[in-house]
Specification:
Elements (H helix, E strand, L loop, with lengths): L3 H13 L1 E4 L7 E4 L1 H4 L2 H12 L9 E5 L2 H12 L3 E5 L9 E8 L2 E8 L8 E9 L3 H12 L3 E11 L4 H4 L5 E7 L3
Parallel strand pairs: 3-4, 3-7, 7-8, 8-9
Antiparallel strand pairs: 1-2, 5-6
Helix pairs in contact: 1-3, 3-4
């Protein structure tokens, strides 16, 4: 059960997130965070709420998923005095990488991480803006584990709970700040 403070934070952040009907196509309601990002207090509040989702003692490094995970993951890492790891689309990282393929609604995609980004035994906090179906974050978890790291937790700004992404990530601790129960 969320505390009153958590509910107030979620309500404030939700008021800053624009809902765009029929984007990119009907009947999708797109949750646009750009309206939150241009509000300095909203951006600060979002980053602070996400940084508090897990105890800083529970993880050693922060990982952000391209591209909006970078927006939130980097300030969280700075605030908590942790390093930051990038997960990107193929061909964007200059060093030796490993990749993980994952399923999309129609087809597959792939993510990459530097092969030396996570040390064996490191505990990793994964950060992204949105939990929808969970496929992208599941691929990130697999990359962490293939490098010998442990997924200490996953934090999302927004969760589209009606898409059941939590089920795909059921083996990991997950927290979201704002939830939408329907489109």
């Amino acid at each position: 059960m969320p505390s009153t403070a958590d509910t107030e934070i979620a309500s404030k952040l939700k008021s800053l997130i624009r809902s765009v009907p029929d984007f990119p196509k009907p009947p999708i309601v797109f949750r646009d965070i750009t309206t939150l990002l241009i509000d300095p207090d909203g951006l600060k509040l979002a980053c602070a709420a996400m940084a508090c989702a897990f105890s800083p003692d529970s993880f050693d490094i922060v990982l952000g998923t391209e591209s909006r995970g970078f927006i939130f993951g980097t300030p969280i890492a700075c605030q908590l005095n942790r390093g930051f790891v990038l997960v990107r689309k193929p061909g964007k990282l200059p060093g030796v990488t490993i990749s993980q393929e994952y399923s999309l609604e129609y087809g597959t995609d792939k993510l990459e991480i530097h092969a030396d980004a996570i040390k064996p035994g490191q505990r990793v906090l994964l950060v992204d803006d949105l939990l929808a179906t969970g496929g992208t974050m599941k691929a990130c978890c697999q990359l962490v584990e293939r490098l010998g790291g442990t997924v200490a937790g996953i934090v999302f700004l927004i969760e589209l709970s009606f898409l059941n992404g939590r089920e795909v990530l059921k083996d990991y601790p997950i927290k979201s700040i704002v939830a939408y129960d329907s489109e």
